[in-house]
Amino acid sequence: xxxxxxxxxxxxxxxxxxxxxxxxxxxxxxxxxxxxxxxxxxxxxxxxxxxxxxxxxxxxxxxxxxxxxxxxxxxxxxxxxxxxxxxxxxxxxxxxxxxxxxxxxxxxxxxxxxxxxxxxxxxxxxxxxxxxxxxxxxxxxxxxxxxxxxxxxxxxxxxxxxxxxxxxxxxxxxxxxxxxxxxxxxxxxxxxxxxxxxxxxxxxxxxxxxxxxxxxxxxxxxxxxxxxxxxxxxxxxxxxxxxxxxxxxxxxxxxxxxxxxxxxxxx
Length: 267
Fold this sequence. Notes:
It is a single chain. The chain is of the alpha+beta class and 267 residues long. The protein is built from six helices and ten strands, in the order H-H-E-E-E-E-H-E-E-E-E-E-E-H-H-H. The protein has helices at residues 5-12, 22-39, 100-122, 220-236, 241-254, 258-261; strands at residues 51-58, 61-67, 77-84, 89-97, 140-142, 153-156, 172-177, 189-194, 201-205, 209-213.
């Protein structure tokens, strides 16, 4: 990066009449902006020459619009969906065209489709309590890192979820394990099952958790979800998901730390 001390000096220096030389300042500022613009690399789709021109996250997917330099081969413009599970990302449903209006239309419709999916995921019948749970709610016991939160209902902080998911259905989860769920945790990841959509499992950092909520204080729909999860675990005749995770963690602890035995290769 260039040294912009000359620009800073111009901004601070006044001539004998007490008036800043604005022409010199503007010229130096224009040069600085041009230089910084060159340093900002455009986002490219992995392994392609497509440059992302528009993108927006809606729920668990990003809707992307991109273009490539070549024209006339039927694939100048592209619209795609992108997902990332925290480990790896994946582009799906890629559509290409030389007609930018066709791609714009697809881009807009996919955003609307994603919005509808989010509404269906977090919505409840009218009249049911689904208000966002905020800090200071007397139903929530503040998270105490000295205590385990395994097998407890946890409340996710509003700032840890996407704005389009602002609802209690996105905040109430049953914590099933993870190194971050134990007392005085050595890790930070907590595995959870959603109390509204019990087939939805995600992981959160311990710092994303506002606190815990006793089952008696849960909204009725959340009590139903919690009961459904507990009943499903009993019905399988297998150890609960929490127990399975705990067993796996103990096995991991008993294994030698390979990282200390094998030198890490350069990346």
